[in-house]
């Protein structure tokens, strides 16, 4: 299995973390999206959408979209709840992450970290929606240790990627104590070192 990804991308980290947590062997092939490496003819032949991550399996099979990838990789593992209802709740969070979380938290981070924008120049609507996403997580996590049931699942893997870096996008996590506690539990469940969102680079 070859994973084409950029370690600065939370979507790519989801795939790496899932493989590492499950002990799945893979070859990581770095793709620098800021240098246009996801738009080359060779990469577009792999994934016509021109996005990372993309995974190449044996033969000619390839798979894109981070949550589809981790859902496939984790089949039959403890990262997908055995209970059908909890598995459906996990999927609910996976869909929500791509529609109501990543477009705001991740985009604000990209604009600050890679485009050099100050907080004052961020789109106020994206900032508002980013805080709404964090507030939704805070509400849930005050009542549950994890997002789908009482143990780590792909829902936590998916939401952890950009939530732990939210401060790099101008979102002060001090206002979300339940989210901060969950970050620590999810990191521990994935065997990740603690991450300082202000001073550290994600790995």
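-> sequence recovered:
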């Amino acid at each position: 299995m070859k994973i084409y990804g950029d370690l600065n991308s939370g979507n790519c980290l989801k795939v790496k973390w899932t493989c590492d947590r499950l002990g799945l062997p893979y070859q990581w092939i770095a793709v620098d999206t800021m240098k246009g490496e996801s738009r080359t003819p060779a990469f577009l032949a792999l994934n016509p959408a021109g996005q990372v991550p993309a995974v190449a399996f044996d033969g000619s099979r390839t798979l894109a979209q981070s949550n589809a990838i981790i859902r496939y990789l984790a089949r039959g593992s403890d990262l997908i709840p055995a209970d059908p209802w909890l598995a459906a709740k996990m999927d609910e969070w996976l869909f929500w992450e791509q529609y109501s979380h990543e477009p705001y938290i991740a985009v604000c981070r990209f604009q600050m970290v890679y485009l050099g924008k100050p907080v004052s120049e961020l789109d106020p609507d994206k900032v508002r929606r980013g805080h709404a996403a964090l507030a939704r997580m805070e509400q849930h996590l005050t009542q549950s240790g994890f997002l789908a049931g009482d143990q780590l699942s792909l829902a936590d893997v998916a939401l952890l990627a950009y939530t732990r870096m939210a401060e790099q996008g101008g979102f002060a996590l001090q206002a979300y104590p339940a989210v901060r506690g969950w970050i620590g539990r999810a990191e521990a469940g994935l065997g990740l070192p603690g991450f300082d969102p202000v001073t550290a680079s994600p790995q």
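Residues 63 and 72 are 9 Å apart (CA to CA).
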